[in-house]
């Protein structure tokens, strides 16, 4: 079983359960999928057979990032002036974007997944959750199967959020009929995917999350049945909450979204919501009391122009917090590393308007690592310590970019930002990206195949 000895790391961000700390000038040893040891001068004579020694001089080694919200399929609508939020109303934008999504083919879903995950890996993400709620009828039901295929090609640890929409546009949703499913269809495919792919064991590379798109676009029964299935099968629950829909939910059901979800049982330690920027402090306290987590997606704030999510209040109330890229409809990149910097800077920008102080820069790194692991129900990823998964990335800091910054590795990503790909990304003990290349893959071929699939989309 192959292992690696990262020799003479300049700094390793270690967390043995009491919070992150920096260990300087140490070695890190892996064996198979796990970290074996972190310490000074690990003896070369005692290494397991097959261990590869890697000179890590100058490297800062961090726990792999955990993405907790994305829409991979939207990668084919990036950087398009005709879909610019600033030039269209929300209704105009939805009317233009959903017909494009409804024309995507099965191959498009595969290649958008490769595209998103490849960018994530380059920037230190080792576990990706995707909320795939787009199921055009002509594309069939095996779209998430193709996502698992893409994850295996790249070596990504992948949590698939099987989303879906059941409420027709004629009854108040924003979803075209070509993308609708019945509740029975949705639940049946969730069950199929859990049976086919979900692995609850240690170092699992494949898990499934039951994730109806959002309350505003689904029948009540869809959420009730989602809770029943997820609790029966022991998987996580996810949906969009608190991104402007609460007044609509109140008009329909007599209560805002947080109370509506709680009434349906769609809340608790096995549940996390995306966004939550419009929620009141009282609603945040209710989420904290139930154990419900939140995936904060900072970069859509710039593009959509919504208010800045009150992360200081969320932390003060004890909510579990993770970070997500979100899809290209509201964020044109899949760089979770950049989201750490964006999240911190946005909170600094609005600090004078907050009741609670801005969390420390280190906390934003924690949201993207151990916080994300908590949202996904994982205890084997999100931090570096013996026995944990060997999910990590390394930055060679012997560059002009880092002069004056190297004294504080814990704050580096949030305060300074990392403006280039990692020097190495390891997932489950396997190096998947190093020296500007994907291990064993031809990036030019991946690019050409994705571009060919993109060319089939009619805009």
TrEMBL record:
Query: Glycosyltransferase: is it a keyword of this entry?
Result: no
Instruction: State the SUPFAM superfamilies in the record.
Output: Composite domain of metallo-dependent hydrolases, Metallo-dependent hydrolases
Q: Please provide the record's keywords in A-Z order.
A: Hydrolase
InterPro entries per record? Amidohydro-rel, Metal-dep_hydrolase_composite, Metal_Hydrolase, MTA/SAH_deaminase
Molecular-function GO term, any one: hydrolase activity, acting on carbon-nitrogen (but not peptide) bonds
Q: Give a Pfam family name.
A: Amidohydro_1
Domain named Amidohydrolase-related is located at: 60-432
Family recorded in the similarity comment: Belongs to the metallo-dependent hydrolases superfamily. ATZ/TRZ family.
Name used for this protein in its record: Hydroxyatrazine ethylaminohydrolase
